[in-house]
Amino acid sequence: MMTPILLALTLALVQQQQPPADTGEAGRLRRQIEDRFAQHVQQQLRLSPDQATKLRATQERFGERRRSLMRQQVDRRMALNDQMQPGVAANSDSVRKLMDGLQGGRAEMLKVEQDEDRDMAGYLTPVQRARYQEMRRRFLERVSEMRQERRERRGGPGGPGMRAPGGRRPGQGAGPPRRPRRGSI
Hints:
Blueprint: H1 4-14, H2 24-45, H3 49-83, H4 92-120, H5 126-153
Helix pairs in contact: 1-2, 3-4
């Protein structure tokens, strides 16, 4: 169960108007949420101060790689959606490369998770590792639900104001318009 402060911070991150990966404010909120989650984990798993310090170092070490992979996967999915527009012939070579990239990205994400778990095995008990993985899964599931609810309240996949005229995201260069995304991670 999430503490009220952790839930409030999660909600604040989900409700950010700017894309979370690109703003200083989102980074600050992400760090606050990570701090609160770390405190929650420390209490629930009854971690020693040494275990908590090591877990935080592991999260930092693997977190940036995970976020980078997630951004790459989102970009690939959006590019694939662009290729698969109804009534427009898709470029088979591009689609193949994007599909291969998505598959490779999933494999890389699994490798990151395995490496992270192997690292945690050095200082957490198997029960603590299993409970941590479950806590993180539930937390990420809740964040995903809240993002989806936010999208629905804002009027669709990207919500109003998420794209510039012509279907492009703000700051995106000229080129063929992008079709709005139909879902996300």
